[in-house]
């Protein structure tokens, strides 16, 4: 398979998620990481790019320059795709511009600062004919793929209950006042948008619930909190959920569960049984059956769906982790760009739109005295 | 210590919880199980009593007869306490009568069919000068005691979040139509009261949350569901919670989580850390600390509170289970009746009243379009 | 069922295992605990007996007096069985005498101080026509019963490998010099016999291996250690094992694994799969299958053997612990004495003899320069 | 840091470990994967190389050609290091030749077919001045690093017991007769050497024990088995261990534990406590302390050694797996070649020599009637 030439916007030295993107795209040898604009500070961008081993001529000062100059290079050299690993307020414009220049786009979630922006981006995207991937990383885990397939084939029967949780503890204190850049942009409405925790991690939990269950959210009832003093965005929340088949559930997203790391987990129950997947033990999928022995499926093990195996690198018992899940996204995206393989699947524009609708509906619900708020992607005027 | 002569109402052969009560009260040799009325069917009562090795003269046909005849026996023979192990609709009258006759009372939760009845019972109880224990079994586990003490001494700081779950799966199908007596009375409003799952297990979860945290519930927002076709009482629900110190949380109680057994668990987070206790692994208490190694405390292990140890029978590594937790309640009750030991503690009238208020507030919230419903024990008229 | 009148030798106030025996025999209401000689100190014996609520006339100063006086009581009052909960050097004589007086006997393991004594006791036992139970507690767990049945029905195929471990840490320091009676008698050859750890816990591990696998040990190769300074008996050891069907394995028994509690566990592998049982999580049996999903069986759950269910008290999800396992032994013994129920099963004389042979063969192997030592119950002279 | 130009011998399409090597070396962008000889079949080598995106001119037909032709390229193009991912019989000659040509070498374990060969390679290596890394992958895990440091700083006191296990189940049937290449070369003495399971996985377990404990093995007593019919090399074994400080232990390595995946785990106990690391849960290190609460350390979490953090890519709660551990080896090797960073550490020649001595001593012990066999690296003649 031809390597895809990829660049990066943001993710300079020291940025957590930039490094993960690089690990993930490099791992399988499917991309040629060739250029980037790694910081709004031109000097830092240069230094970062050099530390990544890039040719200096292809380290740029900003994303506009990156897109323009790369577009002028000969086709066999030119960047084909770009990964935007910037804070939320720097999603919409760079993504729009990249698509307009004809580059495929990889984007962190949430897709934009608002649902309105997301829909505008959708139009640009549709016109562009290019691919767009949104890094809902957790759907890249083999056993998350398997969970979806188990629900699909009826292993747990008709879904009745969905419980999804994403507790973190790292924002339990005012880290944003102690120099943490990660904390600063996430707690600032200008860079993070309407939501804090609900945007940062709530969207992952929401996406995971819809992805595995195959259902769509229809109503929410949210308790949205600003727990740590001085916060203007939510750092905690819990949401009651209603789905389009009548199933109900609950979603928890908090960044003030002191002592928790990144403990995403989901449990889905149907009329025949339930399933459990936990990010702390990501290579295990538990299927609990009514009046039968519980079954444990394992990454690389026997009796798994072809799509699960397509996203697995090692034999059973060789743990695959977060970077592998991330790399699975990039791998699927590469196959998609090269138009290969029928098992290819990754989150994109549609998931981005729904994620923004999630943020807006839970924040609106949080402010409402009424119990239920509709989850709405489009209003009555076809918007 | 003098053995306490105890009788039983209900709990004939084949009744699950009656057998557990007997195991629990017999285990420590603190009670003399001497009499009872085990069924509304006099023949069954006789047979049951005989199978328990009781003297036939003290096996009665109904609770009225039990109380009356026992009260006429000489003091050194006479029953002193009675365990009522009947469905909910047979709590109030037998308990009232027992107290009026001067017997101490052990009662399953919920304490009565309504908050109003509970308050009436409270008056009888207060006049009686007798003891009353409500079998919120889970508070009898050593590591639940330890959890309470850890919160109290500030191990996790000021409590911010409480998540408590009680998923069961046994009512995932219409068992009540397949001859299950356990299912029949629990799904019937006449025998169960206002609530199904919320009364049967939601009250345990609620009690556990207040017990460990030392906080009191102030507001609820409930999604109450009748999932299995034909049910007239809830078999499932989720509740958003607000507590009197500003903490918030969520409570899940469901009997349709197919594949789950009896998976009660609680997580409480403060500003310094969190704690986790799971009924499936009841001898372990996890304390997760912000920026420190997690700590695992174990029943019988080192560094535990005296009250924890008072409720422990074996050295570390010898698992103590459900019957031991139940026996701890009976053991505390016996010490209380004999007025011994300053570590004695068990759930009683107050927990019963609050449990009924929980049921009434979550059912009311479930029917309300407003988000928040006050948790109220007493109305404005001192009732 | 008629209650069995039982007495006790040893197990006065403060003795760990005496209290467990009482909890276990009382729990199910199958025994009438009526008498005992609880200490070699007559005053202590009296005080203990009174604290247990016994009639003073039936608290004795020593076991000889107990047996003699009880044997003279009318049949409907007289003790029928006696539990000997004394250190190892007080097993043989009291057991022999009890059998000769016509009492059924419950005895802690190891059965005697030597294999020779055990065989002498066997002769007395066979002549007596009485029942004898040896408290290999761990075989009383429901999921240990299930494990045996799963092997028997071929779930894991022909057994090839057996790994059994019993790590404890409580003897990691010289507790015997710090006033611990538990440590003192176990580290003293006069009261403990030929072996320390191998007798105290190694015999449990050995018994569990033979019980579940249905195989018999044929050869051992032991590394026997005295780790803590000053010990004259082993406090640690590891043994390579050969079984009569050609299977091999390893047994670990140590009391100096600092930080371990009582972490008995066993894994058995056949040509189709393996099983895992762990005392720290005793209500779970894992069946790992070659090229299939792992299966989790749970106490009280679906699809279990009748014998498993016969030894289960509560529905799935209500943890049963050490005292319940112990009570299962007593319950089976009571059914056996009353000649009821075809599922009845408990460890007895045969297991006692094999346990002594285990101790003698591993200690002999530990002193040998040759790799393999035969496991021999009988020598060539029919002894 | 300058990228290191690396080539590969073996590891064509479909080979498990070759793919892992590529994932691992590519992930961090520290190597330029530029050439290789991927199969003894020149056509297959070409196809594989092209599928990896290599320039055709640098895909060679065999390792001799690879080394010769690369050595003739200009310095700025020429391969600097080579990864040998071939079966055991193709370790010695390619490694020797590579070193003689002046290439750094990455080598799978065991290092050669015999201890004698290993020592010959050592001489070549010492003369070469080049670096050699042996891929004992498991020492690349962050929590294995942490375990070593915890022992070093005395967290568990003086080491007394080491238990290490490596159970796999994949060779439970005659896979080698069903077309599995992985099984074929591992069960064939010509390609695998003196040992089967003991060489393939026993060496990993041995290395892990010495690595974490900081101790050296001095004596072994091995039970070595050929369980599956027709095998001429061991597929199973258990070894009693003695270490140079007097500590003892046991090692289990089996490939016939049907149902097990790759369940390496180690427990080390000192006089103050013990530690547990399990490959199935590799980001957790449990420190069990005598008379204190157990402590749980987690990859990316607080209070870890700088060397642990140096081998960690993501914040706590983002699982790092097998490929990351492998990548850590490559990362340390790259830093070493570029002579940077004082935390750099990786297994090499010394571990290779000791691994061969392990294989030879356990196989010799397996054939001996004596209990103990010395673990010897060098004989009396300075060999």
From TrEMBL, chains A, B, C, D:
Domain GFO/IDH/MocA-like oxidoreductase: 145-275
Domain of life: Bacteria
GO molecular function, one term: nucleotide binding
Every Gfo/Idh/MocA-like oxidoreductase N-terminal domain range: 4-136
Pfam families given in the database record: GFO_IDH_MocA, GFO_IDH_MocA_C3
PANTHER family xrefs: CONSERVED EXPRESSED OXIDOREDUCTASE (EUROFUNG) (PTHR43708), OXIDOREDUCTASE (PTHR43708:SF3)
Protein known as: Oxidoreductase
